[in-house]
Design goal:
The chain is of the alpha+beta class. The chain is built from nine helices and eight strands. Strand 4 and strand 5 form a beta hairpin.
C-alpha cells in the first residue's frame, strides 16, 4: 500500500510530499524519472535516490516498509551536502553524506517500526538542513515551466534571460542533468499524467510537445524501459 501526504507547511516550497509504502507482495517496483530527489528509509536504512535519467528497478519483499520525503524538481539545493549531479542515477546511503542534522535519524535509538515516527525524524532533519544551507535556485520552477510548455532549450534560455551556457550550468546545478535531459523528463511526466487521466495518446503526444505518437512511444520506452501501456496499468 502506497500513501502520499502533503508536506509540512514550512517545507512546501521545497518538498512535493511525504510518502510511505508497505509492500504487500514480493516483486520489483519500477521507478521512472520524475526530476525529483527522495530521502528514503527502507529495510537497508536511509538513502538518497535520484535524480534518475532512466528506469530504476526496486526489488521488494512482502512486508517491506518504506518512508520518504520527495523534493520538488530543482529544489534539493545543498541539503545533502554534495552537488545534485553527483546523485544522478545513484542510490547513496545517508551515512556517507554525514552532517549533524542527520544524526538523530541515523541513531540506533531511532524508532524502527513506526513509519509516522520515522517520517517525523526525517522531516525535522530536512528542516534543519534547509535552514543551514543556501536556498535552491529560484529560477528552477520557471525553467521547468518553460521546457514543459514545449519551448526548445534555446527558447527557454531566451525567455528566462540566460545564455544557453548559463542555462546549462543552472540546470546541472539545480536538477542534476543538462536542460535537454530535463526537457525529456518533464515532457514524459506531463504525457504520463495526461494519459492516466484518459486522454487519447495522439492528443497526449500533441499536448506534450512530441512530434507525433511514435515519438511519444520512443521517448517513453527510452526513459522507462517499458511501453506506455505498461505504465498505465
Amino acid at each position: 500500500m502506497y500513501e502520499e501526504r502533503p508536506p509540512a507547511p514550512g517545507l512546501a516550497g521545497r518538498v512535493v510530499c511525504e510518502w510511505s509504502h508497505v509492500s504487500e507482495a514480493g516483486g520489483t517496483q519500477l521507478v521512472v524519472p520524475d526530476g525529483c530527489v527522495d530521502l528514503i528509509w527502507g529495510p537497508g536504512g536511509l538513502f538518497v535516490a535520484g535524480p534518475d535519467t532512466g528506469p530504476m528497478p526496486a526489488p521488494m519483499l512482502p512486508g517491506d516498509r518504506y518512508a520518504g520525503i520527495r523534493f520538488r524538481p530543482g529544489a534539493t539545493g545543498e541539503v545533502f551536502g554534495v552537488p545534485v549531479h553527483w546523485l544522478r542515477d545513484e542510490r547513496v546511503t545517508l551515512a556517507s553524506l554525514d552532517a549533524p542534522a542527520w544524526r538523530p535519524v541515523l541513531s540506533p535509538d531511532s524508532p524502527q517500526n513506526a513509519l509516522a515516527d520515522r517520517l517525523r525524524l526525517m522531516r525535522a532533519a530536512v528542516t534543519a538542513r534547509i535552514r543551514e544551507t543556501a536556498p535552491a535556485d529560484p529560477a528552477a520552477p520557471a525553467l521547468v515551466a518553460a521546457l514543459r510548455s514545449g519551448s526548445s532549450v534555446r527558447e527557454a534560455a531566451r525567455e528566462l534571460g540566460f545564455s544557453e551556457r548559463q542555462l546549462h550550468r543552472r540546470s546541472v546545478a539545480g536538477f542534476g542533468y543538462p536542460p535537454k535531459t530535463l526537457q525529456r523528463v518533464v515532457r514524459f511526466q506531463h504525457a504520463l499524467r495526461l494519459a492516466r487521466s484518459g486522454v487519447a495518446l495522439a492528443e497526449v503526444a500533441a499536448a506534450s510537445g512530441y512530434a507525433d505518437q511514435a515519438h511519444l512511444s520512443h521517448d517513453v520506452k527510452r526513459l522507462s524501459g517499458v511501453p506506455l501501456g505498461r505504465l498505465l496499468t
